[in-house]
Amino acid sequence: MLYRAIKKAGLEKRLTPHGLRHTFASLLLADGKPVTEVASYLGHKNCAITLAVYSHFIGEETGALQDLSASILAGGQS
């Protein structure tokens, strides 16, 4: 159904369910939604997963959280 809708809309770029999921999460984070909320929507059990994939969409004001998540993902070695 997705591909038929894309063709009917006349879009040239190929969209996939995964791409739409990524866009959804990216737009929420760019809009300042809490990482915990976005992680829940995506079904991630841990916010660190969300941060690892989407941290570049989070504003500068959350730099401390990004640093913490990077430390956690690196196994506490900073």
Structure description:
The model has no long low-confidence stretch (mean pLDDT 79). The chain has one domain (2-73). The chain is mostly helical and 78 residues long. It is 63% helix and 0% strand. It has helices spanning 2-9, 17-30, 35-42, 47-54, 63-73. It is elongated and about 45 Å long. The protein has 5 helices and no strands.
Give the helix/strand layout.
Elements: H1 2-9, H2 17-30, H3 35-42, H4 47-54, H5 63-73
Helix pairs in contact: 2-3, 3-4, 4-5
| Uncertain residue segments | none
The overall number of domains is 1
Nearest-integer average pLDDT: 79
**Main sheet summary:** none
| Percent range for β-strand residues | under 5%
Helix content: 55-70%
Give the helix tally: 5
Core attributes:
78 residues, mainly alpha, 5 helices
Give a quick summary of the entry.
The chain is mainly α and 78 residues long. Helices cover 63% and strands 0% of the residues.
